[in-house]
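Cast an eye over my tokenised protein here and flag anything odd:

===
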Amino acid sequence: MDHTKYISSMSPCRRVGDDGMHHFFGYYNKSNWNKVGTRLLANRVPFMTAQLAPGLAAEVGYFDLADNEKFVTVDSTTTWNWQMGCQLQWLDGREGNYCIYNTRSESTDGPYPGFQSTICNVDTGEKTRLPVPITVVAPNSRYALGVNYSRLFITHETIGYWQNNPPSIPNLADDDGIYYLDLDTGAYRLAVSLQQLSEFHHVESMDKAIHWISHVEINPSSSRVLFLHRWTERVEDETCFLHRLITMDPDGSNLRLLEDSDHPLPQLADDFDPEAVGTFDYEKSEYQISHPLWCDDQRIIVWSPHDGQIHYHLYHDTDAGQVQVVGKDILTENGHMTYSPVNKRWLLSDTYPDADTNQRLLILFDMDNNVCHKLGSFYTDPALKKVNRCDLHPRWRRDGMQICIDSVHESERQLYLIDVSHIVG
């Protein structure tokens, strides 16, 4: 990324809480503030990094921003990873203060035995167990969508859940894919299967590959879903992953293919050394489709190749398939991007670590004026690898005036708040 094209807008940044523990939230695609901005969701652990294992627990809770940023624990979970946490998120569409997150289960109920989700009333402590592990909750809080974390543990370990004896996973399955979960009743059904997806605009590279789904997102009106369908013959090397951006209705109908990065894979040679692949080579691949998110009900922002060029692209979810480049010659690296919840003029994102300095940038792009503000630069320990790295994963406060990130620049894994009101106000 050409940093000379940035406006230096270094912004006030402060750590949240100080209780001697480590804290993180995980992904960029949901706000960890509650609706009134007084509680900030997080996981808490006694270490900055550790080898994940099925019995390793993380506390589930929130910082009480109205009470000296005290951390309040509501539960614990052994179903988490460093990259996405336990998919902790608020149920914004419900009256009261409810959050949902993934937990392990001794039950054989549900499509993915061993994993479930839990809804917690953070005021009363009342908990409801649901039979499907969730990935994302609809904004109306009526339903959630979930995928197979055992499959992810094999295909994309960074975002899977650890198991001592993971089950045998077939390359394809007609009972595995995206599950729809009714949050009121606990009823669930398969919305779309991997078998269906392999038959949808089929390409030859799918034939010998293992398939999976990631980055499932629901539009603001809860009426449309996006996701990435991925497949590979070599899970050891993420640069061999192939990608498609697809949308559908929540029940799995009206599938629409928006982008396909199918391409030749010379890395499949028998003498390929997966240890030679750099930690962030995958994220910087010219064929990568990653981090899609709804801008509004019809448009999707994503890092993707289109017409032979890799950019931030804005896709229109229509059969006409209009695609626009965002920030050409300025936003030239993959990042975790989200639009301000109150003004689509502002696009928030980050970068992966610079290979020489190990610094990652936090940036704010002005869509109206094609200008990028550099909000800060944060060091990351190069000893951290794929499964335990700490991406910034910037997230907006509901009023669009503050940002929350995860970071390890002070040799601790912590949450930080950055004020951007002097730019967006």
